[in-house]
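Protocol step 4 of 6.
Sequence for WbqC family protein (Nonlabens mediterrranea) entered exactly as in the expression construct, tag removed. Do not edit the line below.
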Amino acid sequence: MDLILHPSYFIDVVSLVHLYHSNQIILEVNDNYVKQTYRNRCYIAAANGKLALNIPIIHQKSGGSVPYKSIEINRSEDWATQHLKSIKSAYNSSPFYEYYEADLQELFSDIPQFLMDWNLKTFHWILNLLKISKPIITSAEYLDDTKARQLVTAKQAPILLTRSYIQVFQEKHGFLNALSALDLIFNLGPSAGVFLKDQLDLLKE
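Step 5 output, structure tokens:
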């Protein structure tokens, strides 16, 4: 089964479950930029609940659609430093944050000009940490896939409710579904792969 994905900022856990149980990944690189999606945001579990980390972009002066691949990150704002601070504040007490902190800082030390390139970089970084190896290709034209659009949309209920795992601040806020894969990695570490594997039956319901 192939899975089409729009490159997003630190892929969310629901998309990661679908990815883990797919045979091949097709990265959609010919779409238009759409607001209110995971293209320029991800969510983490912070002390006050679900927290959005947003990447500022340079808005192009165009009345029509703008290709996603042409969207540039707005470097006039020091968003990267703020994101790293927020991630550390949220996960410093998690079981595995300290093991990945240096790698995360190294990742942020070189941020590409274009949003899609940065998202692809975070995508491959996540897969490498989780030791997930899948055939990955890029789309030759826009594929207009319904599931891909659903997975990348941030302002709607996720298309899958995963089983819970222990999260930081869970006693305060309950389990938060569909967070960034960072949440899964910092809380479960090497066991994240086992968690992803155990979600297979949910995809068949």
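Step 6, annotate. The chain has one domain: 2-203.
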